[in-house]
Sequence to fold (115 residues):
Amino acid sequence: MILSNKAIALYNLLSIGANGAKTRKTLAELLNVDVRTVSVLSRQLIDAGVPVGSIRDSKRAGLFIIENQDELNKSTYSVENDALESMNRIHKLRGINLDNWYTEFTAQKNQLQNM
Fold:
């Protein structure tokens, strides 16, 4: 895989370890790109074998280079959670009967409004 100059620039901005995590907004400003592009670039780095982690908690948020197993576990937890929620939504969407969803929904809505 050939990395873009922006992906390499992102790599150079990332600190090793979660304590040095930089927000996507900060990285976007430093790279002169939008926040979404930072996410795309971080995925490119991961695809190239760089252990880019993400942290989202009440104290800090941002991207960093994973330093140990604990950081790997914490980084993948939120991604796994997001994936499970997406799969649950897909499952629910596929279970909706497209021929009569509106009728069923309207009946439920009317029943709730009459309570």
Remarks:
- The longest helix spans residues 69-94.
- Helices lie at 5-13, 24-31, 35-47, 69-94, 101-113.
- The chain has a mean pLDDT of 93.
- Residues 5-96 form a domain with the Arc Repressor Mutant, subunit A fold (CATH 1.10.10.10).
